[in-house]
Amino acid sequence: MAARPIPRLVPKVPRGEGSTPPTTLVAPPIVGAEPEDVSRAQRGDLRAFERLYRTHVSRVAGLVRRMMGSEHAPDVTQDIFVRAWQKLGTFRGESAFGTWLHRVAVNVVLQRRASLRTERERFVSDEDTLDDMPGRHRTDHADIDVERAIEKLPPGARAVFVLHDMEGFTHEEIGELMGVTSGTSKAQLHRARMILRGHLTR
After folding, report:
1. Are residues 86 and 124 in the same domain?
2. What is the CATH classification number for the domain harbouring 162?
3. Is the dihedral of CA 114, 158, 170, 108 positive or negative?
4. What is the CATH number of the domain that holds 81?
5. 191 plus 124 within the same structural domain
6. How far is CA 15 from CA 20, 73, 75, 155, in A?
């Protein structure tokens, strides 16, 4: 079976925060039309896939930004949607499309992290890295930038914090995704919370 062509109508995620869907000439998706768009996209309809992209790009970009930092968010987000297009044939409708896409996104993020040499040993136990986490410099602003604080967490602790506290994964699911035990996931979550608490209250 021939490989699905990579879509060319999906616009790039804008540089910067990556939290706002790009503007195109395509009309906004109609509420309740997503299952039909998924079906059309599975048959090769690029316009339908672009509507799905516009619906979900903000959440996907936010996940990538929190787990990998703003620097990698545009390219990795684009990679996620390319992977989703290539794997659309495996979506059977047993869950919501957004749930399926979220799993695809997490897998792509973890693969990219591995390729960037955020190796498993650093995730499992690097007490020095965790303890040497620098505090926030005092400023005259009262508001705390939580997103930037999360980005400063060590990679493993940040991944667990985002997946568990922000995305709702269980420790068992995180352990399976990350290739570690659920106990390690719990320990890293505790570390992440302690680091953030100390960092944000200084």
Report:
1. no
2. 1.10.10.10
3. negative
4. 1.10.1740.10
5. yes
6. 10, 8, 9, 22
75 vs 171: CA distance, rounded Å = 28
pLDDT one-digit tens code per residue, 81-131: 999 999 999 999 888 999 999 999 999 998 888 777 544 445 554 444 434
The Cα–Cα gap between 80 and 76 comes to 6
Predicted TM-score (pTM) of the model is: 0.65
Domain region containing 165: 120-131+145-201
Q: pLDDT, tens digit, for every residue of 34-81?
A: 999 999 999 999 999 999 999 999 999 999 988 888 888 899 999 999
What is the CA 51 to chain-centroid distance, rounded?
Answer: 19
Amino acid at the residue 125: S
> What length does the chain have?
202
